[in-house]
Amino acid sequence: MKRVLFLFDVDGTLTLPRLPISQEMITCLTDLNNIENYDLGFVGGSDLPKQFEQIGETNMHLFMWKFAENGLVSYYKDELINKTSLIGELGEDNYQKLINVCLSVLSETIVPVKRGCFIELRNGMINISPIGRSCSQSEREQFFLWDETHKIREQIIEKIKKRVPDLNLNFSVGGQISIDIFPKGWDKTFCLKFLQESNYEKIYFFGDRTEPGGGDHEIYCDSRVSAFSVKNYIETITILNNIK
Fold this sequence. Notes:
This protein is 33% helix and 21% strand. The protein has eight helices and eleven strands.
């Protein structure tokens, strides 16, 4: 029997944005995991603690592969197999240059509300938010709808790109309120290098931000996976039920 990996984005694909996983999704993943030669994994832009919050520590046993920060922090079962540093890659001077540019651009950006935590350093990327990550859930949802019309995050990306053209960076719109910034090649395809020796005959990927500029776009287009673009976790469940 062929070995198959089901690889999922987290936010918007397994869960509603920044909310805990539903029992319906847990049941679907449990049923899938019980099928012989089927393995599960997730790859998200968030750090591992945020992924634990959404998926739940008691559900982590369902996933053979755990890729945080696009795979820059990677676990196979419970073993850490990779940890790659953004500051180590850029160097302190270039890192400070990038932070200063982001602070400047964010200070010039007008949005409906501003809260706190506008820049978050993760191990392999920085995450910036024009509204601030400490906003409430309702403010998060309102900003997302507003940004769909005004495209303020896309404008922020273009402004930063113009001011740091020498740093060889990639930018992706992350979730509902933020932007991920990381070296080129450090998108979600980064995690695939750890799967190449696992002899999977097929890797299914599920993601919700598959459009150009979205956090799932590069891996969605990668020939090494068979990819599905979903609108929410309900659609993920529907597709999985048809595959099973």
